[in-house]
Amino acid sequence: MKKTGLLVLLVAGVAFAQSAPPVTSTMAATPNDKGIVESTPSVPFVRYQTPTQADIYCAGFISKDRLPDSKYVNGGLQSPTSTKFEIGELVYLTGKDYQVGSLYSIVRELRDVNQYEIYAGMRKLLSTVGHPYGEIGRVRILDVRSHSAVAQVEFSCDPINPGDVAVPFVEKPPVAFHVPGHFDRYAPSNGKLTGRILLGKDFDTILGSGVKLYLNVGSNQGVKAGDYFRVVRSYTATLHDPGDSLSFKAQISEDTQMRSPTFEATRWEKGSGPNIRVEDLPRRAVGEIVVLSTTPTSSSAMVVFALEDVYAGDTVELDPQD
Questions:
Q1: For the chain, how big is the Rg over CA atoms in Å?
Q2: Exposed, middle or buried: residue 262 (CB in 10 Å: 0-12, 13-18, 19+)?
Q3: Rounded to an integer, what distance in angstroms lies between the CA atom of residue 243 and that of residue 238?
Q4: CA pair distance 64, 165, nearest whole angstrom
Q5: Residues 132 and 184 in one domain
Q6: Alpha helices in the chain (DSSP H)
Q7: Using CA atoms in the order 302, 24, 233, 61, what is the torsion angle rounded to 10 degrees?
């Protein structure tokens, strides 16, 4: 019985090893029998996450001009008992000139109740780009009365609330599937358009795969839906982070080292030992994002893969897919 049990365990172990996905970050950079270079820590093989319809229509956006708010949700079938409305429910829209059968997007102008700046100049930069809006859902007009229209919720990202604004629905183009490929973590600047991540959806600041975010570049700079941007970060950026910058003051040497090395940064004093110049460390790419939609001054995008956390304030660089 012991031998039989051991044999079963061995067979199961072999099967698991064959079915388990490879750990791409530790594979050797040597050509295989077909002459193809495998994934390496500096050039990993990555898979892009393709945005769904929900990703595209629920991303939200930043608008330079405030949207007209003369048409808005003023209740629903069970008001005032119910104030949250989802797919299939009836809502009432105030305003005029509704047509039976027409579609309206329900959007919400947002405010960040937390005034803390994740990166220096965040509020000023956001004010120059526009006002953040959430995309809440979509409704179809069923009937028109004297002072309001009756509509049914066909799609919702979040519960629709009284006061949410109704604007004519505009169809968005889909984002094409991106085949897996190699990603150079240390690729030098390509000289293409650069921008910055303003903030994440729901005012998130630490972003990962699948998370939506907003850039400070848009159609005025030639950006369009389906464009890819590489998220890059220099080590000098750590100097501006209140928490991470403390690492530059920490001791990094071993007790047995004759000369203690120190990180050289403009705001810290130089040590007596070898100085490690932070600005000489290579710029690294931390992930890739795809543009979902644009306004003249901004873009809504989604992280399609991340090798490490993406932060609000990170720099992005247009990554042509030719």
A1: 26
A2: buried
A3: 9
A4: 17
A5: no
A6: 2-19, 53-57, 122-129
A7: 0
> How would you write 9-62 as a 3-class SS string?
HHHHHHHHHHHCCCCHHHCCCCECCCCCECCCCCCCEECCCCCCHHHHHCCCEE
Q: Could you tell me the CATH number of the domain that includes residue 303?
A: 2.40.10
Q: How far apart are CA 231 and CA 209, in angstroms?
A: 12
Q: Is the same domain home to 92 and 191?
A: no
The pLDDT > 70 percentage for the chain reads 79
How many CB atoms neighbour CB 114 within 10 A? 8
- The Cα–Cα gap between 196 and 125 comes to 10
Whole-angstrom distance, CA of residue 88 vs CA of residue 20: 42
Residue range 124-147, pLDDT digits in tens: 999 999 999 999 999 999 999 878
Report the predicted TM-score, pTM, of the whole model to 2 decimal places. Answer: 0.81
Quote the strand ranges of the chain, DSSP E: 45-46, 61-63, 72-76, 90-94, 103-109, 131-144, 148-156, 165-168, 181-182, 194-200, 206-207, 212-215, 228-233, 262-264, 275-277, 284-294, 299-306, 310-311, 315-318
Whether residues 227 and 244 share a domain: the answer is: no
Element (H, E) at 265: none
